Each structure stands twice: as structure tokens, then as C-alpha cells.
Amino acid sequence: MEKILSQDEVDALLRGVSDGEIETEPQAVEAPADTDGPVAYDLGNQEWVVRGRMPTLDVIHQQFSRLFRIALSEILRKTAEVTVTNQSVLKFGEFTKRL
Predict the structure, then answer these.
(1) How far is it, in rounded angstroms, from Cα 11 to Cα 17?
(2) What is the pLDDT of residues 46-77, one digit of tens each?
(3) Contacting residues for 44 by C-beta, under 8 A, at least 6 apart
(4) Which residue of 1, 14, 73, 87 is surrounded by the most CB atoms within 10 Å?
């Protein structure tokens, strides 16, 4: 398929724009009908909890612990040991009760 327009095609486009056959104004985009505004989310009454492993979060924890160990060792000028323990998933309400 040829990507370069011929002179006849360019002339036809220019005629279409000047005659009003081709619209040059951007068309308004309508918002989806199901967005009625913000939805309240009650963190204290969360029913849905993620179960199982979260591999991406494990990678983040490993990376953070490695960088934190390096930074802490440089500050203290001694070898520091930082380990990642098991993660647990709690509802926010249960978490705040434990504080």
C-alpha cells in the first residue's frame, strides 16, 4: 500500500475541506453513562480481601529490603541484615483495631 498521496488526492482533500464535505472540527466525546460521580468507599467495612500470593508485591519487598540494607550499612558503617518476613492480608478495619 502506497503511503504517499498523489497530487490528485491532495487536491481532492483540499476541495473537500474547503467545501465542508470533510469535517475539520473535533467531535465532542460523550462521557460514559454509568459515571454518576464519585462512589463512596468504606475502608472500615471492606468485604472483599485478596487471598493468595501477590508476586509483584514480593518483588517490591525484596527490592526494598536490598536497597534498605545497603543504605543502612552505609549509614552505620557496619554490615546490616534486613530480611523480608511473610506478608499477611487484613481488612483495614482489623488492621486499625490492632493499632
Answers:
(1) 10
(2) 666 666 777 888 899 999 999 999 999 999 99
(3) 92, 93, 96
(4) 73
With vertex at residue 45, the alpha carbon angle to CA 42 and CA 51, rounded to the nearest 5 degrees, is 110
In tens, the pLDDT along 10-54 reads: 888 888 888 877 777 777 666 666 667 777 766 666 666 666 777
Q: Which three cell numbers stand for residue 17?
A: 475541506
Distance CA 51, CA 33 (A): 33
Task: Check if the beta carbon of residue 93 is closer than 8 Å to that of residue 46.
Answer: yes
Half-sphere exposure of 30 (CA within 13 A, CB side): 3
Q: What is the CA radius of gyration of the chain?
A: 30
Cell 552505620 -> residue:
76
Q: What pTM, to 2 d.p., does this model score?
A: 0.45
